[in-house]
Write a structure and sequence with these properties.
The complex is a heterodimer of chains A (120) and B (211).
Chain A lengths: L14 E3 L2 E3 L9 E3 L2 E3 L2 E3 L19 H11 L10 E14 L5 E16 L1
Antiparallel strand pairs in A: 1-5, 2-4, 3-6, 6-7
Chain B lengths: L5 H8 L17 H9 L2 H4 L9 E2 L4 E2 L2 E6 L20 E6 L8 E12 L8 E8 L5 E9 L6 E4 L14 E10 L7 E12 L12
Classes of the chains: A mainly beta (120), B mainly beta (211).
């Protein structure tokens, strides 16, 4: 399930959007004990100036994303295009389930939830 | 499901070859597994104390897969006669480890037994553990642990029955025997399980190199 209203286009600035993954939807609810699903989220939005500037307050720290946004602002039709809106901070999830031998298994998966997005 | 559909692709990305077939025989989830799951619950992770990736804090070992494996030989265990004189009957327990991948390295293998003794009298008992070789004869004794009164008996098998830096066998069969003890009746083995922690390095993020 994605955030209502997102629709097809990348509305607004680069930020985290809700994406809920439900194990029931893929038919795993019989053997996944917990969780029932999790908020995976995703990144979407514009990475042009000033959104590409890192962090609130203070002078913009020149980095590759800012350079790319400047180049794109100067020559939108030529060059590599704007920087990308991608996950900047991720966190893990754990899944508890029964396996084929009826053992109870706990598995950890790193980098499964988008906590923050950024222009890179 | 057919291998090409998204659910199977997601399953494989999660390191699982196939979804368990049919409905699993639902059994209570052992408290230790609930505790470990809650400890790694993302909400708690956001509570500000960072969880080390690929590490099981509660057990203090590296690992990203924890399995609670019940004894699969429980049906074939002989009923224990009351002790008149001489040793107590021996037990064999078997753990199905076929779900563990060759790339996984065991970092903790803890045998847990629940013994039931008349009037909880397990004073002086010791339990010996040996590998149960195919030739119907137990191998050499690997370790011996005292039987705690009233508590589940726990024995760490890593380095003894389970090699630390090698892939695990498909089935782990153990021969257990009780020694000593002042009680006239043998304790009964009510439940046996193995808590196995493994590390699958393929699922761990590489350590970041400093620029």
């Amino acid at each position: 399930h994605t955030e209502p209203g997102v629709g097809g286009g990348p509305g607004g600035t680069c930020r985290t959007r809700r994406l809920h993954v439900s194990f029931r939807e893929v038919g795993w609810h019989r053997w996944v004990i917990a969780p029932r699903g999790f908020l995976a989220n995703f990144c979407q939005g514009a990475c042009t100036l000033p959104e590409a500037l890192p962090g609130p307050g203070g002078p913009p720290a020149l980095n590759h994303a800012v350079l790319r946004a400047l180049m794109h602002a100067a020559a939108p039709t030529a060059g590599a295009g704007p920087p990308c809106c991608v996950p900047a901070r991720l966190s893990p999830i754990s899944v508890l389930f029964f396996d084929n031998s009826d053992n109870v298994v706990l598995r950890h998966y790193e980098d499964m939830v988008v906590d923050e997005c950024g222009c890179r | 499901p057919a291998p090409s559909d998204p659910a199977s692709a997601l399953l494989q990305a999660l390191g699982l070859h196939e979804a368990p077939q049919g409905v699993p025989t639902l059994r209570p989830v052992p408290p230790v597994m609930w505790r470990l799951f809650r400890r790694r619950d993302p909400q708690e992770a956001r509570a500000g104390y960072p969880l080390r990736p690929c590490h099981v804090e509660e057990l203090g070992v590296a690992g990203n897969i924890v399995r609670h494996i019940p004894d699969s030989g429980v049906l074939s265990r002989p009923l224990e006669p009351a002790r008149t004189s001489g040793p107590c009957p021996k037990w064999t327990v078997a753990f199905d480890l076929s779900g563990v991948e060759p790339a996984e390295r065991p970092t903790r293998a803890r045998l847990e037994l629940r013994l039931e003794a008349a009037n909880e009298d397990t004073r002086g008992w010791e339990l010996s553990v040996a590998l149960w070789a195919e030739a119907e004869h137990p191998g050499p004794e690997l370790l011996r642990v005292p039987v705690p009164p009233g508590l589940p008996l726990r024995a760490d098998l890593l380095g003894a029955a389970v090699a630390a830096n090698a892939s695990v066998p498909r089935t782990l069969r153990l021969a257990l025997a009780l020694h000593g003890g002042a009680a006239t009746a043998c304790p009964r083995l009510a439940e046996a399980s193995l808590l196995l922690v493994t590390l699958d390095p393929r699922l761990c993020p590489p350590p970041r190199s400093r620029r």
